[in-house]
Amino acid sequence: MTQTSNSHANLTGSLWMIAAMAAFAAEDALLKGAARTLPVWEILVLFGLGGALVFAGLARRNGAALWSPDVVSKPMRIRMLFEITGRLFYVLAIALTPLSSATVILQATPIVVVAGAALFFGETVGWRRWVAIFLGLGGVMVIIQPGADSFSMLSMLAVLGMLGFAGRDLASRAAPARLSTDILGVYGFLAIVIAGALYAAWEGRTFQVPGAEAAACLGLAVLCGVLAYTALMKAMRTGEVSAVTPFRYTRLLFGIALGVVFFGESLSAAMIAGSALIVLAGLFIMWRGGSARA
């Protein structure tokens, strides 16, 4: 590949990544909007069913079987458990806490994935990247401020969601390669349905027929989720990973902007400082990983 074509591929991949992050942020905002009137468990079930049906249709169109023994392999079972955990607690976080803070905390996921890859997959992570990992996690602590008067246990919802997503991403590395992204999407969204069903007993709220606004929010959230997932796959398959991946952090900008504009949220000094630590640590880890100087 020539330098010109390589640069064009990197630019295209970066634009796909930015589009994916914008769609993910919009999905979060729409789910938060639906949570104004609907129980969280109902949002999870309806959103999960919608996404699963869309990906099932895409899988069948591409000739993929919806069921195979690989679906219930150990890595897939572990992946589903983490998906349930991540989705449940993250949706709770965006429903009950500021969208901007939940979005920022979620950006620590790649940092935790690198740490998990070193601990569970034996990948080499040098001391510089370990320092960056702890700095990034320190950024999360700056945001939630444990021990401070302003600390709320609700802040831990986003942390638990982030850890769930990190576990899901790690389990995905061990998932059978024969499973297509569409099939992973089907069972990822079915995990959201299970998360909603489990939370229904805890929440104790009955099913409510969605009003026009809530129904529109859920429908658009499903659309954004599918578009985001598709754009993310295109981004990771176009250009160099080291050039495309840093643009994941644009989700932070989109999430904060949506929180401020549509939900009247404000940014504190702790939020800005914590965000800077997480982003800088994440970018440094990616750079060290791509430079072959772990």
Rounded to an integer, what's the Rg over CA atoms? 19 Å
Unreliable spans: none
Biggest sheet, open or closed, and with what strands and sense?
A: none
Query: Mean pLDDT across all residues, rounded?
Result: 88
> Count of DSSP helices?
12
Q: Quote the beta fraction.
A: under 5%
The total count of strands amounts to 0
Shape, principal axes of CA atoms: globular
Report the end-to-end length measured between terminal Cα atoms: 26 Å
- Helix- and strand-based class? mainly alpha
Helix percentage range = over 70%
Can you tell me the number of structural domains? 1
List the secondary-structure elements in sequence, H or E: HHHHHHHHHHHH
Explain how this protein is built:
With 294 residues, the chain is an all-alpha fold. It has one domain (3-290). The protein contains twelve helices and no strands. The protein has helices spanning 3-34, 40-61, 74-96, 99-106, 109-120, 127-144, 155-174, 181-203, 212-236, 241-244, 250-263, 269-290. Helix 2 (40-61) crosses helix 9 (212-236) and helix 6 packs antiparallel against helix 12. The model has no long low-confidence stretch (mean pLDDT 88).
Main features:
12 helices; 294 residues; single chain; mainly alpha
Short account of what is shown:
It is built from 12 helices and no strands. It is an all-alpha fold and 294 residues long.
